[in-house]
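Moderator note: this is an archived Q&A kept for reference. The question asked for a predicted structure of one protein chain; the sequence and the answer are reproduced below.
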Amino acid sequence: MDGGPARERFRAWLLEGLSDMAKQHPGPHAQPTEQHRGQRWWKVMCLTGLDYFSTLGYQPGIAALAAGLLSPVATVVLVLVTLFGALPVYRRVAQESPHGEGSIAMLERLLSFWKGKLFVLALLGFAATDFIITITLSAADATAHLVENPHLSGVLGGHQVLITMVLVAGLGAVFLKGFSEAIGVAIVLVAVYLTLNVVVVAVGLWHVVTAPSLVTDWTHALSVEHGNPVAMIGVALVVFPKLALGLSGFETGVAVMPHIEGDPDDTEERPVGRVRGARKLLTTAAVIMSCFLITTSFITTLLIPAQDFEPGGPANGRALAYLAHHYLGGAFGSVYDLSTIAILWFAGASAMAGLLNLMPRYLPRYGMAPHWARAVRPMVLVLTAIAFLITWLFDANVDKQGGAYATGVLVLITSAAIAVTIAARAARQRGWTIGFAAIAAVFLYTTAINIAERPDGVKIGACFIAGIVLVSLASRLARAFELRVIDVQLDEVAERFVRDTAHRTIRFIANEPSGRDLAEYRDKVHQIRADNDIPTEDDLVFVEVTVLDPSDFEAELKVRGEVLHDRYRVLTLEHSSVPNALAAILLHVRDTTGQLPHIYFEWTEGNPFAQFLRFFLFGQGEVAPVTREVLREAEADRARRPRVHVG
């Protein structure tokens, strides 16, 4: 039996939804589908909360390991940084980038040419670190809750890596089938999880209140270990960067902005209601999480022995679940485990959706992703494979992945703080500029401390950056000869030139303008006619290309017509690449008039390899053969391909 049809069906399924080359792949978060459009902000907050609130599953345990007895003090420092640092920054990001583009888009607008592209690729590397580690860390912690459950530990113990990979594979399977964020499910998961945590916190606080010696013993131990409150705060400032894990929820919060219901008179240019809803979302989520962070770090530090937080201990990576089982019994503890596992698993889904949105938003537009990267399913397979590798390398251990996760989160927040500082300065808002600059300095310090103490995070980030840059440049090379013009826009004069030539042989002269004086055009016409034996009665139209940003891959082609020296008709094109602009106008004229246009070039002097590099980096180089190659890739039928002449 021939496997051809089966392979074709599999290929069609794998590439389902693959958009046209010139269209921007929206990704799962970019534009809300109809069932998500216009949701109340608090409902969308639950979608964000899958990532943000789920960090309660492992945050108290990581805080206890990082800060020991100082965990509550360090957590208070973290809360202050959250409420007076990250929150104001992302409220400004929501205002500046209300379409779910985030702080990366703000910085992208400030930089141009290749330095801007490479900078964005570096930020994407850290974003990939954040989201991938979110997937693997959340799955690993879900595994910890399964394995440490008293009813399952005997069966599942020792299989953490395998179980985590199964959870990651299940997450990938959801996306392969076709994932759409269900806000209703998110509301249920978040509501149940937070309610269970309220119960655990209330019971924990009750045990602390009814046993006053716990507080006095803790404060005495703090005094013995650190001396005075000033020393305690100083140490807390040093260790709190290790606690900055759940702050990635702010990035997710601005990513889901398009789902928020706006005012009736909102427009895409001025979505005032959407911005107001996003700010409510960010503020409410930050306040709720801050309350939980302070109370959970307090009760876990006082009620759980320090040795139980160590790797292999019953509270490692699951401190609140430990308290749920210990104080509320196995039945409640198992329900808590199930709720935690569900929200951690869906936190990974939120991270996967964010990554599938972020990468296609930038890389295809830069020409730095293979064509199939616009389809969701191939990207899911790639990301799942990477998650498998990370899980294996870190042995599905929550503590080992904390540094990499924190690095990715902190770099993104630092970049956001810098972006809003620049935006405030551009708006001449002196007070906000100083405030945001101070916040950026705090996050720069936090990031530096985290990198210094846990270099594995920046190493993983560097691996992601190197991989993204290498794959991106290789993809750009492979796609160098694609026709990458989104749209062709002619002004009235240019359209008249095309109409006038529609009933005779259409001949264009490719010209690189210098002085644009009469002699330049007269000599060029004489040379082209002589080199190509063109009759004097045939009309010739000059085509000149102005290169804008050659690092852009996909762009509109704007065509302006003008008559120079009262006799020479000139089409002036604006694009990122000379050969692509020429090929696009030739195909446009062919499709508009029904005739095959001819274009005439001169050979360019210079080394062919150097000329190719000029084309690759600067959009110029040896134009004639590259224009012909772009036409060959765009039009397979030689009979319908515009004619290229070189003399």
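Archived answer notes: The radius of gyration is 30 Å.
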